[in-house]
Amino acid sequence: MTVPDTLLTMRGLAIEGRSERGTTQIVTGIDLNLKRGEVLGLIGESGAGKSTLGLAAMGYTRDGCRITAGSIVFDGIELTTAGDEARRRLRGSRIAYVAQSAAAAFNPAMRLIDQSVEIAVQHGVMNNAEAAAAAIALYRRMQLPSPEEIGFRYPHQVSGGQLQRAMTAMAMVARPDLIVFDEPTTALDVTTQIEVLAAIRDAVEAIGTSAIYISHDLALVAQMADRIMVLRHGRLVEEADTRTMMASPRQAYTKSLWAVRTFRATRKPEMAAGTTPLLRVERLTAAYDETPVLQDVSLDLHRGRTVAVVGESGSGKSTLARVITGLLPPRQGSVAFEGKTLAGSYRGRSPEELRRVQMIVQMPDTALNPRQRVRDAIGRPLKFYLGLTGEARERRMRELLTEIELDPDQYVDRYPAELSGGQKQRVCIARALAAEPALLICDEITSALDQLVAEEMLKLLDRLQRERGLTYLFITHDLATVRAIADEVVVMKDGRIVEAGPRDRMFAPPHHPYTDLLLSSVPEMDPDWLDRLLDQRKAQAPS
Amino acid sequence: MADLATALRSAPPSAWFGISVSALYVFVALGAPVVAPFGETQVVGPAFAPWGGASPLGTDNLGRDMATRLIYGARNTVGIAVVTTVLAFLIGGGIGLISGTVRGWVDQVLGRIVDVMMAIPSLIFSLLLLAIFGTSVVSMITIIALIEATRIFRLARALALGIAVLDYVEAAKLRGEGLIWLITREILPNATAPLIAEFGLRFCFVFLFISALSFLGLGIQPPTADWGSMVRDNAALISYGDITPLLPAGAIALLTVAVNFVVDWLLHRSSGLKD
Fold first, then answer.
1. Predicted TM-score (pTM) of this structure
2. Yes or no: is domain A279-370+432-508 CATH 1.10.260.40?
3. What's the ipTM?
4. Taking CB atoms and an 8 Å limit, are B168 and A327 in contact across chains?
5. Of the partner residues B168, B176, B190, the one whose CB lies closest to the CB of residue A354
6. What residue segments make up the domains of chain A, in order of their start?
7. Domains along the sequence of chain B with CATH
8. What is the per-residue pLDDT across A334-379, written as a single tens digit (0 to 9) for each?
9. Closest in B167, B185, B186 to A361, CB measured
10. Strands A471-476, A306-310: parallel, antiparallel or unpaired by DSSP?
């Protein structure tokens, strides 16, 4: 150990993944240095190797992966050559891991506190009572409500944000020297994300552990990290101190990451007053069994324009889409398309009515039948609605693929498994376009995608709208997306519309308090953003 | 075909064993008249003749050649088991997929009927029905197929329930596709792997079931050669230290093991667990 305050060093690390189609290099020649008490941010799109690298910090590789070269030294211990037993002793007690989905990481059959103390007790760091006391202290530090009791609940009895905080507390019980956070807030709402982020940062500072913080969201990492490494295709693109990196990125790729979310859709002319809306939703009330999810929702969609519906998860925005398409018949209220009231259930609608309203959903993985080629997915609506067959269908299919910027020769015979997430979403768009709809309902279609890919998708949608005069109902929780493409914004909370209006008015004060909360929770590309926001909220809070 | 070739190449030895043995059974069953030295019901010598001579495995209780009976038994027992299993899958799988896709009262009614049928022990139920409808091959196939179909119904329904809520099925529903398209194009192709694995397992159960019924005298009727009744008819030999009655039993056991090896391998592949 030459530098006494270095905790973790990686030298020329290479990790290779093995699949049926041969081996792929996941991580190539990474050098990494982490000092005690330092927080290192790892940034990159999916497939950049950041999770693999995070796991490698614990001397662990996923099934089918192996370390082919390089060294990982944790506090003087060479992890690549240390035995399984030695590595197991380190994990949990000296190096801890916080995963993206706390819901999947907790054992649903055990109480939180029992899981929190498990590692510390098993590794003999402390006894049961000490560990429980430490866990409760950490629950308090993580600002969980009623820290004395929350541990005695089961995972399904607390919210997603609370679970994520409980998981961070669990990782800290044994006082590890290093914690690896792998996208800990990605699955959370913007408003919850702030709370979790602030709690994690506080706790990391107070305990003084080192941390590796992995995220695809640069604005988030900037709040946490002292230093940032940008990864792409398993290689290091750029590494610098957070402030330096934010102020003056050097590499082109880093700059493109920084420039994300600057896209703005083409402005549309003001609407002529008194036109019939393409879609009118009136006083809609809907429920799943006895749970009401939508209450008295009314909105108008005008031809060629984009209405964005924003809200946290559970606000009823996806349910609104399901009611409009007829998947969930409403309890009360009506949906009218071009002045004509539609049947409540899709079963009661004519093929022509179904054709005019198309929906694209969040997860492209489940939106395409894995046993159907791109040809079948796009070809079916062409035949079903337009009666196209043979040569004519083939020609239209190629036109559609060209339109969504996929090369027909290359992609038409592929299965969904042979496409990337962004490509799958493009195929879903093509499938919807094949029906030649008037209205396209986009339900969180960019949230499962990387930011760069998501931005490409928005550009594509904007171009299609200009060329085809499409109307969009854009459902999202991401205000950056709203700012980019919406003409009008509808804010929903607990199944009701809180506020609605044209984009410019919605993004300019004064706001409805809830809109204000949503807007201020969107991370900004500024390392001081979180501090400022927390100060601001503290000042505003009634004391 | 290329997929099949690569899959076979990477198959473990147990799967290879299973495939080879199953293939041998199929070959023997199909080619019985050519392979067998005598006719199915031909009496070739004294009853219970020892091994050797013209009858390498001796003769049975009526003096028919044991080896010949074994070969024809493969044809009859395996053939009937295959037909029964296919029928059970058509009935149970078809209704199960419809039930899981449509849901609502259709599902409730079908589900309760199946529950009632499953509540009665299957062997007793089939003995009862065979006593009522007689012991012809057709009624036996129908009765066993119906009873087995209840088990397949449950699996197919569960699979359909899981797949029917996926976005691509909803997309097809919203397109206005009918039930037949939904089931045959969207749901069934994504449920084939577990159904194929189940087919192998069900085949073994049906096969054992038929043998058990034959052993009890209510299955395949004499003089048709069949392994279950061959065990029963020659069981007395066991008392004299002659293992001949164990041969048909062994044939049953070997095929069951072989089919299970193949099924294990298919299950392993379909669940995505490699190595």
1. 0.82
2. no
3. 0.79
4. no
5. B176
6. 6-258, 279-370+432-508
7. 59-270 (1.10.3720.10)
8. 999 998 999 989 999 999 999 999 999 888 888 999 889 999 999 9
9. B167
10. parallel
